[in-house]
Structure formats: C-alpha cells, structure tokens
Amino acid sequence: MLDVRNLDKSFGAIHVTRDVSFRLDKGERRVILGPNGAGKTTLFNLLAGEIAPDAGRILLDGRDITAAPVAERARLGLARSYQKNTLFDGLTVAENLGLAAAVASGATRSILRDALAAPAVRETVSEVAARLHLTPHLGAQVSAVSYGVRRQLEVGLALATRPRVILLDEPTSGIGPEMAHGFHHMLSSLPRDLTLLIVEHDMDLAFDVADRITVLNYGEVVFDGAPDDARNSALLRDIYLGSWENA
Ligand SMILES: Nc1ncnc2c1ncn2[C@@H]1O[C@H](COP(=O)(O)OP(=O)(O)OP(=O)(O)O)[C@@H](O)[C@H]1O
Question: Which of 78, 89, 194, 206 is the most buried (most CB within 10 A)?
C-alpha cells in the first residue's frame, strides 16, 4: 500500500532522515517511535509531500508519488493530521468536519452553506462523528470544546476526506496517559481496511494500537518489528527507554 524506499533528507549539515525504508500493508497500523529530534515529523513531512527528499522513493499502491504535490497525494487517499492546531475555532465541530469533507469531494467553488448541506457531506460528518465519539459535540463551537475533543476532531478532519492511509502525528500529545489509552482504543476501532501510520512518543501507548513498530533514532530505522519483539528488545530497553521516560 505505502512503500517507503531509502528516503534521505538533510537540512544543511544536519542529516535528519537516513536511508529510511519500510512497507505498510493495507489495513496495517504501524507506530513510529523515537526520542525527541529522531526525525519523526520530518519523515511525515516527506510522506505528505510538504518537503522533498534528497534521495529515495515513496510509492502508494505501486505508483511513484515521490514528486507529487500535497493535494495530489490527498486525492490519491493519503491524509494527515498535525501536532499543531489546524481547526477553525469560530466554526462548530460539524462545520469543521463538513469543510474537510466538502473540500475533499471537490466542492471548493460552492459557498460554505451549500457545501455543508450536501447530503454526501452530511453523511460523512455524522459517520465520522460517530466513529470518533464526536456526535454530542457536533453543534458546539470549537473554541468551547475541551482539548481532548479538539484532538479527536483533528483526526476527524483527516477521516472526513475518506482516505485510505492516514498519517497521525502524535494524536495523543498533551492529553494525559489515561485519556491517551482511550484515544488509541478509538483508533483501533476504525475500519480495518484503513491504514494508519502513527507517530507516538510513548512506547506503552504504541502497544495499544500497533501491528508493527518502527523505531527511529538520529534519523535511522533501528528497529522494525512486532510489538512483542519491541517490548523484549534489549537494544530498545537499554538505549532508548531512558530518553523516552524523560521526554
Ligand atoms: N526545516 C528544518 N531546518 C533545519 N533543521 C530541521 C528542520 N526540520 C527539522 N530539523 C531538525 O531535524 C531534526 C529532527 O526533527 P524532527 O522534528 O523531525 O524530529 P522528531 O522526531 O519529530 O522530534 P519531536 O519528537 O521533538 O517532535 C531536529 O534536529 C530538527 O532540529
């Protein structure tokens, strides 16, 4: 489904992504772990098309998208959520979801009110809201909802574009470990044919949702395998656990 081959990226003298390769099968949930500065967000920026690699290739269903612009990747079914806030505070939860759905369906020239009233958009809004436990908040203005609901909505915006692969950049950052487990449970219950690539700081949280785990350190893949193998890896325990605990 998503085939990442030998990606390399430097910013000036800083070599941030070093020969990174992995494959995501359809429906796979893979977590990218790694300490601060390991290159996780840079990898996402490369995959989403926000920056170009110096070397390497990215294939989506066999099609080379290495040079494809962000919008084309989105059209091909690749969606992304951000660590930074991308919500419209002055609109309701439903309007935010509706906008994402409307833009993804090509309704850019309609006025907002018409686009949001389209039956397909309304259907997407209620389906995504139900999946992400946002239904009770649909009528609320985003500025009035809790931080946890905002994080759910960030994922909702990606889901409303009806993607096949979603890149989630630390979806649980800042919401506390207990809520984070619930959040991952919600992610696990998304349709099984949806492919998820999730950046996560916390190894315990990664075990909630991951079929496979990739660990980056100094821009390099130092582990790629099943969660149980990650849990039992002396390499990860000895070298990286300390830095995660302090993160
Ligand atoms: N545009 C840029 N110009 C220069 N250096 C950059 C740029 N983007 C990232 N870096 C550097 O690349 C390294 C990796 O950063 P990146 O944000 O990808 O790591 P990360 O694993 O996502 O970290 P965190 O967990 O703190 O979010 C850091 O040293 C960062 O300072």
Answer: 78
